[in-house]
Amino acid sequence: MFLGSDALALAPLTRRITYLDEGDWAVVTSAKVTIFNAAGEEVVRPIRESALSGALIGKGNYRHFMLKEIYEQPAVIGDTVNAFVNPATRTVHLPELPFALAEIERVSLIACGTAYHACMVAKYWLERIARISAEIDIASEFRYRAPAMPSGGAAIFVSQSGETADTLAALRYARAQGQHILAVVNQPESSIAREADVILPTLAGPEIGVASTKAFTTQLAVLAALTVALARARGAISHEREAELVGHLTEIPSRAAEVLNHDERLRAIAATIAEARDVLYLGRGTAFPLALEGALKLKEISYIHAEGYAAGEMKHGPIALIDENVPVIVLAPNDDLFEKTRGNVEEVMARGGPVVMISDRAGVARLGERLAYGVAVPDCDPFVAPLLYAIPIQLLAYHTAVIKGTDVDQPRNLAKSVTVE
């Protein structure tokens, strides 16, 4: 008999799993388990066959699980996109929904940690492409803020494990407020998945490294597909525009494989980052949540203090920190916001701050040798840029942590599934 808070932890040991309902408690011996409900009455809970396999959990030829999972992204993004799009017709197909997408007037996105950053990206997509009001919130704040939620809205809960305690509590609050519940999870048998109306699965496979990588990019892939479906249902985009956006999504796996070719370059940059005490990440638009995610990754596994900022906010305080000892990582897709971001980069360089710019080839070339380092990712449509630009910041954090000698896969004080408040 084994006891765990996440089905993934039990995968190497057994595929036969019983889930406890809310309020249940159990007496476990080596021979049996007896389950009682909140009233103290003995109950029987079904035994399920888990789809997870312990055989999938291994490092292969990689030094760390995190590096293996970074390199799996072209494949798992492809698997996830293919689950939602028809490449022949270039249309998005969601699971059967118990409500009409066209009738949704408001979307709430709720998550914690890295999943919250995925929600931040999705807010930009939903508002710009689907033309729908989208609110985002950290689950632990949302549940205590107790907002009024007009009946009939859609609440989307994003979680790698599907067991995050704050996110699960927020889901129950949203259900009580009459919301349609969608779960974007990597564990289809998890608590959040079981309580949702609709599951939109991320097909990332087991993610062992505590710092989320492939779960994040597959969450972005699912939320991108949902955005396109919602936009089409609401009449915000034409069939031709849907086909165009789906085409960009289907190109991501091959482009992501190209990004991984920068691994050696990012390892060299990491040698400089590893010497810093403070690092700033800047971005605009959908690159702003990526700046937050990049800073989080660096903090999580290298223990270097890092902050992510909207580039336009730099003059409202963070610019006071800039000197030759504070590297500034700038995420600057070559889109309609590039010139604004470039102005912020000029301000950093004028104050002696070393700049690492992640952009496409043309974007890097426009600042040339004035950059401390330039990393050119493949050209892509701004819609899918977050999926590609996430990979360099993951590799940069990984190599910095390796240089510093930290426990990359199991950083101090952190757990993979946060099942307590």
What keywords describe this structure?
421 residues, alpha/beta, five-stranded parallel β-sheet, 17 strands, 40% helix, 17% strand
What does this structure look like?
The structure is a single chain. The protein has 421 residues and is an alpha/beta fold. Helices cover 40% and strands 17% of the residues. The protein has 14 helices and 17 strands. The chain has helices at residues 7-10, 65-71, 73-84, 113-128, 139-145, 165-176, 191-195, 214-233, 239-259, 263-273, 287-302, 338-350, 361-365, 385-404; strands at 16-18, 25-28, 33-36, 42-43, 47-49, 85-86, 91-92, 106-111, 133-138, 154-159, 180-185, 198-199, 278-283, 305-310, 328-331, 355-360, 373-377. The strands form five sheets. The chain has a five-stranded parallel sheet, sandwiched between helices. A five-stranded parallel sheet has the order 14-13-15-16-17, sandwiched between helices. The two termini are 27 Å apart. The model has no long low-confidence stretch (mean pLDDT 91).
Short recap of the structure:
The protein is α/β, with parallel strands linked by helices. The protein is 40% helix and 17% strand.
Parts with pLDDT < 50 across at least 5 consecutive residues: none
Question: Could you estimate the helical fraction of the residues in percent?
Answer: 40-55%
How do the strands of the widest beta sheet line up side by side? 9-8-10-11-12
- Give me the Rg, rounded: 22 Å
Number of contiguous helices:
14
Chart the SSEs and their pairings.
Blueprint lengths: L6 H4 L5 E3 L6 E4 L4 E4 L5 E2 L3 E3 L15 H7 L1 H12 E2 L4 E2 L13 E6 L1 H16 L4 E6 H7 L8 E6 L5 H12 L3 E6 L5 H5 L2 E2 L14 H20 L5 H21 L3 H11 L4 E6 L3 H16 L2 E6 L17 E4 L6 H13 L4 E6 H5 L7 E5 L7 H20 L17
Parallel strand pairs: 8-9, 8-10, 10-11, 11-12, 13-14, 13-15, 15-16, 16-17
Antiparallel strand pairs: 1-5, 2-3, 3-4, 6-7
Helix pairs in contact: 3-8, 3-9, 4-8, 4-11, 5-6, 8-9, 9-14, 10-14, 11-14
